[in-house]
Structures are given as structure tokens and as C-alpha cells.
Amino acid sequence: MSSRIEQLIDEIEEYINGCKYKQFSSTQIIVNKEEIDELLRELRMKTPEEIKRYQKIISNKEAILNDARQKAEALINEATVHTNELINEHEIMQQAYAQANEVVTLATRQAQEILDNATIEANSMRAAAVQYTDDILGNVENIITHAVETAGARYENLINSLNQCNDIVKANRTELKPVDDDLDSVDDASDGGKSGNGVHLDML
Q1: Residues near 156 by Cβ (< 8 Å), separated by ≥ 6?
Q2: Model pTM?
Q3: Would you list the domain boundaries of the chain?
Q4: Dihedral angle at the C-alpha atoms of 164, 166, 170, 172, nearest 10 degrees?
Q5: Closest Cα to residue 5, out of 49, 55, 53, 54?
Q6: What is the structure's pLDDT at 136?
Q7: pLDDT value at residue 100
Q8: At 24, is the secondary structure helix, strand, or coil?
Q9: Three-state helix/strand/coil letters over 56-123
Q10: For the chain, how many helices (H) and strands (E)?
């Protein structure tokens, strides 16, 4: 409302309050028709178009309410569609997240299987290498043992042969010693005869 309308209302109230009561009455007053009509006419003239529009809106409240209901239903439907889209997106995200987790789980399982198989294979290769090395060392040990035994037998035969040769040498030397003694006796006898002849000659 404009300030003039408020003033007119105040003036009407003051006018009514200033009117005199009819005789023998406490509710009826005496008013000047022209003065009150003038005040009301000015009030009508000052009534803004906005108030008239509000009055028209009130008179057409059913139509406005229906329009409001339609707009509200449209908003609700739009919100429902948007909510469903968000729900679908959320479900898609959940499915994508679940698929991602499944992929990660599968990859982890496969990686663990590869690691386990590699560990088993490495252990098998290690056991095979140890066995192979042990077999080679066993063969080498057998060869060395056989070589030692063979060398020992040959050495023993060599020692026996050398001892036999030594015995023969000793026997030969022993056989040579009596000849040397006989030669010494002959030499001694020859020396004695020469000495006797000499003496004999000297005596003559």
C-alpha cells in the first residue's frame, strides 16, 4: 500500500471516532454522507493496480492453484528423473568399482599364482641342480677312489719289484765277495815267494 492509502484509512478511522452517537444509542453514529463518500472515493482511486491484481488472483485461486500444482508436479517429475539418473550413475559407479575390485583381485590372484609357480619351479631347479652336482661329485669321488686304489696297487707292485731287484743286487754282491778274498790270498802268496827268493839269493 502507498502511504496515501494508509493516511486515508487513518482519516476514516479518525472521522468515525469523531462522529457523535445517535441519541439513546451506544453503537450507532451520525455521519456526513458526502464526507465519508469523498474519503471512500479517494481511497478507491488510490488503490494501486497491484491490489486489484491480487484481488483477481484471489478470485482465480483455483486456476492458480492448478497451475501451481502442475508446476510442482513438473518439478517433482524433473527431480525424480534427475534422481533416477543420479541413482543410475551411482549404480554404474558401483558396478565400475566392483569390476575394478574384481580386476584387482583377479590380477592379485594371478600374480600370486605366478609367484608360487616360480617359487616351486625355482625350488625344483635348485633341487635338480643340487642332485646333479651331487651326482657329479659322487662320480668324481668314485674316480678318485678308483685311481687311488689303482695307484696304490701299482705302487705296491713297483715296491715289490724294486725289493726283488734289490735282493738280486745284494745276492750278486754277496757272490762277488768270495772271489775277492781268493784274489787277496793269491796276491799274498806271490809276494811271499818273491821275498824268499830274494832272501835265498842273498844267502847264496
Answers
A1: none
A2: 0.33
A3: 1-61
A4: 70
A5: 49
A6: 67
A7: 79
A8: coil
A9: HHHHCHHHHHHHHHHHHHHHHHHHHHHHHHHHHHHHHHHHHHHHHHHHHHHHHHHHHHHHHHHHHHHH
A10: 4, 2
